[in-house]
């Protein structure tokens, strides 16, 4: 194995996240790159976008950005870099929509591939018995939704926000309130086309090159660049009954959530939120939920207390409304929420799925979208969620949170253990997402340093007391931490890396491996 891991000590690249491109040895590299014959083109200047992401904290400038117009542009570029061996220190990162948090789609002094250049390539929908859509990996999920809805179809599993690329979410998992039923997005893919770290173009699926298929799903971009994907579809509903109810008792809240995810016959979507010391409880920035009971809803104020909000949805078509109302009423009867806190809304399926975008537009208008986002996402085993809640919501974050906190359970049986994704071992585990925003120039509890320190306290607590917890969208900077994260999968990761990307060219921004020059 020729690849080396990122050293444990502070690496100068990562200690100071803003680094402009340097010139010197890269002159040779840029000369080499310019000899490539491409359908698209390389840009060597004005590459600021490729050095930014949603996290707004890391800015590592590439040497060049490739705007591919064909898969062979990607394979030729990677093959060229591969064939130079260790004579070149060039690395390559695919950049989807750049909605990473810590520079994962950046490549310092390397080549960033702008996967969105592929957008708009024809999507092919097969509406047969097992419907699917073939898409380019640079396509945004929102565009896939629009296109498939034209044929009354839609993907089954989503993320809360749809302005992300297929390649970007499949490299992680793609989780939302449908995951309890359908598994994450990586459980809903039939086939992929991948360019490996040697520049080979390989088709893969459960039956063909299955190891590569599993490697790239949840693979953090380490084993290949996904160029096309075949995504499974289902019949799309027209409408969604969207419901929120509140709890003050965490045990009742999680008991109801776990009860609801135990059956496919109940709701189509199950999520939840934690509200700490907040007003406007029912309307947070992440969604456009407008309850039919606005007056009653506006009365709720957590007033120093912690509240838990169960968010559920039932899909329906207009001619089924009476039946659905009765069904929802009977499903709600068995739940233990605070009786006066039932809020409902009816929206189109499209409006429901694209709900976070409405809030994005509002925040953009106020200049509050492109600010630092020190997010932390964790997967927590069911048996540890109560200890976690007691310490984190009751102590570390007792007084305030700096953005929505999402919490919901999923069933591990819907996740494929052969993929590269790491999850807790238990049958049911929770996603807990701290989606903090750091308002620029704020200090104190709104400031970036304070939020980062809080995140670290949460992580330290988990490392010491809750060893089964795993990071989702993981971020580490040392070999020891990555090894611990992957646990028993680490050997498989090493084998796959040496097979598919032996020079460690791909996705350097994840900081798992370092090209060994
Ligand atoms: P990028 O940030 O561009 O890339 C992410 C990583 O994948 C990088 O390492 C990159 O090199 C690699 N990569 C990108 N494209 C490819 C490719 N084609 N082949 C191989 N590797 C590739 N996630 C959830 O699961 N559920 C949610 O509900 C959710 N909500 C979100 C809401 C918001 C507002 C944001 C900003 C993020 C959210 N995420 C959620 C996280 C999101 O799924 C990941 O950050 C995802 O990677 C973003 O996709 P992207 O296209 O921006 O990827």
UniProtKB/TrEMBL annotation:
It catalyses: N(6)-dimethylallyladenine + A + H2O = 3-methyl-2-butenal + adenine + AH2. Keywords: FAD, Flavoprotein, Glycoprotein, Oxidoreductase, Signal. Residues 58-236 form the FAD-binding PCMH-type domain. SUPFAM superfamilies: FAD-binding/transporter-associated domain-like, FAD-linked oxidases, C-terminal domain. InterPro entries: Cytok_DH_C_sf, Cytokinin_DH_FAD/cytokin-bd, FAD-bd_PCMH, FAD-bd_PCMH-like_sf, FAD-bd_PCMH_sub1, FAD-bd_PCMH_sub2, FAD-linked_Oxase-like_C, FAD-linked_Oxidoreductases_BP. It holds the Pfam family Cytokin-bind. Belongs to the oxygen-dependent FAD-linked oxidoreductase family. This is cytokinin dehydrogenase. It comes from Cucurbita moschata. The gene is LOC111432444.
């Amino acid at each position: 194995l020729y690849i080396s891991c990122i050293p444990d000590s502070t690496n100068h690249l990562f200690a100071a996240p803003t680094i402009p491109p340097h010139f010197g040895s890269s002159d040779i590299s840029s000369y080499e790159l310019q000899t490539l014959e491409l359908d698209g083109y390389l840009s060597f200047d004005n590459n600021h976008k490729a050095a930014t992401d949603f996290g707004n904290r890391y800015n590592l400038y590439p040497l060049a950005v490739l705007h591919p117009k064909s898969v062979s542009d990607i394979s030729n570029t990677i093959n060229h870099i591969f064939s130079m061996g260790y004579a070149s220190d060039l690395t390559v990162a695919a950049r989807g929509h750049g909605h990473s948090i810590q520079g994962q789609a950046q490549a310092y002094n390397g080549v960033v591939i702008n996967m969105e250049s592929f957008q708009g390539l024809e999507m092919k929908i097969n509406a047969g018995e097992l419907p699917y859509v073939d898409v380019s990996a640079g396509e945004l999920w929102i565009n896939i939704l629009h296109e498939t809805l034209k044929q009354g179809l839609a993907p089954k599993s989503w993320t809360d926000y749809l302005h992300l690329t297929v390649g970007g979410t499949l490299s992680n998992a793609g989780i939302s309130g449908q995951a309890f039923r359908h598994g994450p997005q990586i459980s809903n893919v039939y086939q992929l086309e991948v360019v490996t770290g040697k520049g080979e173009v390989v088709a893969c699926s459960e039956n063909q090159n299955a190891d590569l298929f599993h490697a790239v799903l949840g693979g953090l971009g380490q084993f290949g660049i996904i160029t096309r994907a075949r995504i499974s579809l289902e019949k799309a509903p027209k409408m969604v009954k969207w419901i929120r109810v509140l709890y003050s008792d965490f045990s009742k809240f999680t008991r109801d959530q776990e009860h609801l995810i135990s059956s496919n016959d109940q709701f189509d979507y199950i999520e939840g939120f934690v509200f700490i010391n907040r007003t406007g409880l029912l309307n947070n920035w992440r969604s456009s939920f407008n309850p039919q009971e606005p007056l009653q809803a506006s009365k709720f104020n957590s007033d120093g207390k912690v509240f838990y909000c169960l968010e559920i949805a039932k899909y329906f078509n207009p001619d089924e409304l009476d039946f659905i109302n009765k069904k929802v009423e009977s499903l709600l009867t068995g739940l233990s929420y605070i009786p006066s806190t039932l809020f409902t809304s009816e929206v189109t399926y499209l409006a429901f799925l694209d709900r976070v975008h409405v809030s994005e537009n509002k925040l953009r208008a106020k200049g509050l979208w492109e600010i630092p986002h020190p997010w932390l996402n964790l997967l927590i085993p069911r048996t540890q969620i109560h200890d976690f809640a007691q310490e984190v919501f009751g102590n570390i974050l007792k007084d305030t949170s700096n953005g929505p906190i999402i919490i919901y359970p999923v069933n591990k049986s819907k996740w494929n253990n052969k993929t590269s994704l790491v999850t807790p071992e238990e049958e049911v585990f929770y996603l807990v997402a701290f989606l903090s925003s750091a308002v620029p120039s704020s200090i104190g509890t709104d400031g970036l340093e304070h939020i980062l320190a809080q995140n670290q306290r949460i992580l330290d607590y988990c490392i010491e007391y809750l060893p089964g917890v795993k990071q989702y969208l993981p971020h580490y900077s040392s070999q020891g931490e990555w090894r611990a994260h992957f646990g028993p999968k680490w050997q498989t990761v090493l084998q796959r890396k040496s097979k598919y990307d032996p020079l460690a060219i791909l996705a350097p921004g994840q900081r798992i491996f370092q090209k060994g020059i």
